[in-house]
Amino acid sequence: MDLKIITDRRCDEAIVLECIGDGVVTIDLDMRIRYMNRAMRELLGYEQDELLGQPLSCHFFVQGSICSTQDCILERAIRNREKVRNYETVIQNKEGRKIPVSLNTDLLWDETGHLIGIVETYRDLSQINELKAKLERQAHPGARGPLIGRSKALQRILDVLPQVANSKATVLIQGESGTGKELIAREIHRLSPRRDHPFVAVNCAALAEGLLESELFGHVKGAFTGAIADRPGRFEIAHKGTLFLDEIAEISPMAQAKLLRVLQEEEFERVGGNKTVKVDVRVVAATNKDLTAQTQEGRFRDDLYYRLQVFPIRVPPLRDRKEDILPLIEHCMARLNRVMGKNVRDVDGPALRVLEAHHYPGNVRELENILEHAFIRCPDHSLRLDHLPEYLTAEKRSGDERVGTSAGDAGVALADLEREAISRTLEQTDWDYRTACRRLGISRSTLLRRIKLYKMSRTGQSK
């Protein structure tokens, strides 16, 4: 008996299917949808006749990683007479929104015992996933994935990440060095339907101008000296996943033009090649620079800037979210105890007050480095003031001397403390930038900006 005849019958069973809450779809052996109940139509936003009978219509809205492969659910059902139970995947509604679902399948037979198709049932997991996330946040109020914090500023960012992750929109994360921009990018990937595909990170500032294009887009054999074989770029490696472009402001004008084309057309050519490569990649970019100013000054393409910041996220520096310092300390201490095999249980009062009062030009990365330094020096179960880096204890002494400073001079005093800490560290390291950055917990670019800001010379005195 033909499947269409079965599914078109106005019988009691069909009425029941129209009333149940789960989505139900029947598909014939040619992968054409023959029936879709009301719950499924509402979930997808399609009318009954928009998908019925269309070739490969099942693959049109099922976005699982096994679709269109030999492991496709329908292929497995036909080949192995296999049923699927509680397979979690993602479907895409008419507006392009991704919906997490649990999928079950069963086989459909005609009256003579011949397989004629499968029936699929879909259960929307959106509310269940949100409830799980809420319960997890209640159990661990300071943590969400690898991101730690209690401040309202950070919580506002974390609250919006699930919605951001559920789209393919390009995200631009802005913030100072060490604020955790890559962690946010990884969290977007972890929460997205692309989580089972690659997350590829590229530091654009770490690559010479001539190498960046090859790194991003790949090259063909003979494209330049040393190109002894075809090599895929990061875009190809990240296919169906997420590409994180850190320090995006550092890319050359030519690379900016090629990146804009990829974002708009989802295609490119390898360096030295003429074959067009199609990719499906979600791009998340990050920068510690003011891209608006860069654009106004003509150093960054305005069309690329607006294409990147479809959804902008600005991460506040640690000094503006002091509530996050204590949970970050607790998190880092737990990690360092595991890594170093120690059992440090607490931070004593004077040391904690210094940690909470510090300005943190290197943000979270600097705090992590400070604690690692203290762990190395700590012989027992408690971190004390004398275990902290010298520049922090020097700040405390300077701060004690400035107790009488008026409130109006507070901002100047804070800048003076930062300048003194950087100057002292540079003198102690004989102006070895790499060692100084490691001790201060800041990046090389941040250190150079501070040296220029405070007009510091090799002698440690102002110019």
Give an overview of the whole structure.
The chain is 44% helix and 16% strand. The chain has a 5-stranded antiparallel beta sheet with strand order 2-1-5-4-3. A 5-stranded parallel beta sheet has the order 9-10-13-8-14. Strands 6-7 form a two-stranded antiparallel ribbon. Helix 12 crosses helix 14 (302-308) and helix 18 runs antiparallel to helix 19. With 463 residues, the protein is of the alpha/beta class. It is built from 21 helices and 16 strands. InterPro entries: AAA+_ATPase, AAA_lid_NorR, Homeodomain-like_sf, HTH_Fis, P-loop_NTPase, PAS, PAS-assoc_C, PAS-like_dom_sf. Residues 147-376 form the Sigma-54 factor interaction domain. Residues 16-81 form the PAS domain. This is Sigma-54-dependent Fis family transcriptional regulator.
Total strands: the figure is 16
CATH superfamily of the largest domain: P-loop containing nucleotide triphosphate hydrolases
| Number of helical regions | 21
Q: Describe the strand arrangement of the main beta sheet, using strand numbers.
A: 2-1-5-4-3
Shape descriptor reads globular
Q: Can you identify the CATH class of the largest domain?
A: Alpha Beta
Largest sheet: 5 strands, antiparallel
Strand content: 15-25%
Low-confidence stretches: 139-145, 403-412
Distance between the termini: 92 Å
